[in-house]
## 1
Amino acid sequence: MRKSDAATLMRVCLAVIIVYLVFLKVNPVITILLIAIAFLSDAVDGYFAVKDGSRGSISFAFYISAALGNKEAKAKIRPIKERIAKHVPYGPRMDVAGDRVMEFAFWITFTYLDIIPVIVFLLVVIRHAFADALMGQKGTSNKMKSKLAARIYSSNLSRGMINVVKFLAFAYLVLVYVSGYPISIGYALVAILFAFIMIRGAAEIYESLH
């Protein structure tokens, strides 16, 4: 098994553990720390994939510098990602599957606990189902041709922001359920996250239909 796929599976396992801890109302600091690790592991599996594709010539610091916008680093890593997508086509889809499992685990949990309205979760599922299906036949987000769609969906800024918002929203909902924090802030964070998800989904669908 490739290291990147192992990291993806670890993220899925962490999601299951986190949900279990939420239901047990374990110390929220532990649960939130594991949520942070789960989101950070998304960068780790991407690095392992690039490292394997470059035969170990890419360091983690170099990979992060590309993620932060270093043009030289991005130019060197881009063809590696394209080669991986061509020779290991299931790799990028495995990463997407891992992301969806982790995200849906949180949506389902907080919907079941009556913290998030069911309609919000249903709309998120519909968005992901159609966007993933349409993008699946086009390839990975790294191949987006529309500059607008690429900026909204696949740019490093967009990827970073959505992960930060997801972490803040789900981490705060843990505090709502376990420690009784005000739900109003949770609703605000969920609204921001929902808007981000829908806008990025629209960019995916736009790209897929052009």
## 2
Amino acid sequence: MSEKGNVGARKNPFDVRSARSTVDVLHYGLGPIGLGIAALALDRGYRAVAAVDIDPQKSGRDLGELVGRDRLGVAVTADVPAALAAKPRVVFHSTQSHLGQVTSQLLVLVGGGASVISTCEELAFPWSHHPDEARRIDEAAKATGVTVVGLGVNPGFVMDLLPIVLTAPCREIRRVTITRVVEAGQRRLPLQRKVGAGMTRSEFEEGVAAGRIGHVGLRESVAMIADALGWTVATINEHIEPVVDGTTVQGLHQVATGRRRPEEGRVDVHVSGGGPAITLDLTMAVHAPEPRDSIAIEGDPPITMTITGGIHGDVATCALAVNAVPRVLETPPGLTTVNRLPPIHR
């Protein structure tokens, strides 16, 4: 059938423009990202019915005023059961980076009958490093008929979903390398602190050892890419070092690599002696030179792509969360990943 003859033959199962005002949402976590998501969701026409945050300075305040909009009549509370009593269909969840910190939160939300879009980095692909938590969340979501996904700009797009999509025209893939350079001076203060900006080298090293310094999610991105390509990764290694100007740390250089396990009966130099099959190279620093996002796929055909200036992480994370709503509501119940959702778009 010609394209012309097929126009209008299929009906969109989720009419975004007409359905937004009928999707009630709960905003859980009102830090810089959570507030950014709330503002964009309101601008898009989604209906906020509740807001949760533990910050006593936000308690009782109107969500609309917190995001610079008109009053909504939605007061911020720390009482999650009370917020769930408003019967949200979707929860925008933005609290912590580590899955162990948020699993109990997610289980309560799922138990309340709401689908969850979370910016928790370790939720982006939790099966490789947090299988028990992933199983519990998946089983709970299926039991209540809702969907849970972790996403954002990284993990969730630049260093996993985008390169996965770019492999579509390839007959063969041998190696995937992604380089992301972020000018941290243009990002929110909590992120600058997380990458160690302003510290001494010894303070940075202590922070890395304690788990306070470092980007969370590169291991999840490596695992997601490997899973999408059908590769078995033998090891995922990660290394963090400071980016230093004189005696002051400007940020970090963090690299994660995944090495494929050789297939039985096959000798492959790219697997067993030619370096890692997946390399994620991330620099996040104040005054970082030449910010960019670059993807190099060694395959047949080879593909390279560079986004000059890079994608602004805070803006993109908020947009990805809000843009994902229709796709999440189309997806079968359970815990899923961003690359298994129908394609997200504006």
## 3
Amino acid sequence: MLFVYCGVVLKTAVLFSGGKDSSLALHYALQSSQVKCLVTLISENPESFMFHTPNIKLAEKQAEAAGLPIILQKTKGEKEKELLDLKNALQKAKSRFKIEAVFTGALASNYQASRIGKICAELKLECINPLWQKSQLAVLGELGEKKIEAIIIGVFAKGLENFLGKRIDEKFIQEIKPLSEKLGINPAGEGGEMESFVLNAPFFKKRLRIEKNHVFEDRQGGRVLVIDKISLV
């Protein structure tokens, strides 16, 4: 499906975190619009209500791998105030690249989707959420179908410790499904239980390889695979 306005394919930006959902949204955007840039918010607050934070600075490297321009916007990550930074970033994308719409990887969070939608409306941009309300297990399955290689880089719920660093593939789905039912968690991490990072995708011109990393444990027991060095190969 092409997103067309007045006979012209829409020029779009993609809100990009470097994780599985925004990468899958980028896949859809590239197939249905003219993707002019990625937009990434870099939050100082690791517990941002709106934005993915683990290894977020590496989104620039992922943009390089995809051969796409990227707008990086810093934010302190303060609740609600961070929305002003998002609006500024999208305004930059509209001014620089003449975008008409924004793709997001919003899957189930009404908090995120409603606020992004409101900002887009204020900027007279269409908001497109291709993953919205899809089955979380189906979304995990799509990663394999579309050859998007993603790994788990953050686990923040008890019982998920052994998933850190694992690739999201069919084996992962088989393991996470019964565990999510047992623990009452979202299998795709939509409740903040997990975070991911994409190393390769069909739209990458080169894949990413982790050269050096370490594990950081926060005060609440969450564990993050911090990528210290990464290269394009």
